[in-house]
């Protein structure tokens, strides 16, 4: 949901929440924004946004490296080998969107840029236990805080959005996003995918 609290005539605040859709699955984003009206048609805006996006399978390839796989040995009534593997699942980021917006009647169009900064990475951990007495057993996986190694600290996102006021105070908006480059650092083992497209959709409430 999104809300606009106006202070004076030219300045307003916005709070929005969106569902994100791209090839790795759905994510979400929440944003606080300040807008300034240049005239009755044009506004500029700046804000802060939290974004959660699942990572595509290609970005989990580094889980096969030694850095994301650990092996432990125990000796108790035979030899036990426990292998733990980390697979990157999702990323939490903070973005600073800035841009310009055009409004005519119920229709609003905006375009902007948003530098993004990595907050954390979510991993899926899987374990395989092998014993000399009981054979091989795959244990239930669990989620945990991920290692940030291999990820860039920042990125840039470009966006184009449209909003339609279905009621005087209620609007529906959609947004297309383009993120050039890759959020992974290059390595000898993998060549990261680059240039990602994804979309957002949400509701806006205007006070």
Describe the 3D structure.
The protein has 207 residues and is an all-beta fold. It has no helices and 12 strands. The protein has strands spanning 3-7, 11-21, 27-37, 42-54, 69-75, 79-95, 98-104, 107-131, 135-145, 154-167, 170-179, 196-206. Strands 1, 2, 3, 4, 5, 6, 7, 8, 9, 10, 11 and 12 form a 12-stranded mixed sheet that branches.
C-alpha-based Rg, rounded? 22 Å
Percent of residues in helices comes to under 10%
Largest sheet, strands/sense/barrel = 12 strands, mixed
Number of strands: 12
Specify the overall morphology.
elongated
Order of helices and strands: EEEEEEEEEEEE
Mean pLDDT, nearest integer? 79
C-alpha termini separation: 12 Å
Q: Low-confidence segments, ≥5 residues, pLDDT <50? A: 1-8
Strand content: over 45%
Going by helix content, strand content and strand pairing, the class is mainly beta
With helices defined by DSSP (H or I, 4 residues minimum), what is the helix count? Answer: 0
């Amino acid at each position: 949901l999104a809300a606009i609290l106006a202070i004076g005539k030219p300045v307003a605040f916005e709070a929005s929440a969106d569902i994100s859709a791209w090839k790795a699955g759905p994510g979400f984003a929440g944003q606080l924004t300040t807008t300034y009206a240049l005239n009755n048609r044009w506004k500029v805006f700046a804000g802060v946004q939290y974004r959660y996006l699942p990572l595509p399978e290609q970005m989990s390839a580094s889980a096969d490296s030694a850095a994301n796989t650990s092996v432990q040995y125990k000796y108790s009534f035979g030899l036990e080998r426990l292998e733990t593997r980390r697979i990157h699942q999702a990323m939490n980021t903070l973005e600073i969107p800035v841009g310009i917006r055009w409004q005519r009647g119920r229709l609003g169009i905006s375009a902007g840029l948003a530098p993004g900064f990595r907050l954390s990475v979510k991993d899926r951990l899987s374990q395989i236990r092998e014993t000399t007495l009981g054979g091989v057993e795959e244990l239930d996986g669990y989620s945990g805080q991920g290692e940030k190694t291999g990820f860039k600290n920042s990125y840039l996102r470009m966006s184009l959005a449209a909003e339609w006021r279905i009621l005087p105070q209620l609007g529906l908006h959609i947004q297309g996003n383009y993120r050039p480059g890759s959020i992974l650092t290059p390595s000898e083992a993998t060549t990261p995918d680059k240039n990602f497209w994804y979309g957002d959709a949400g509701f806006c409430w205007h006070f």
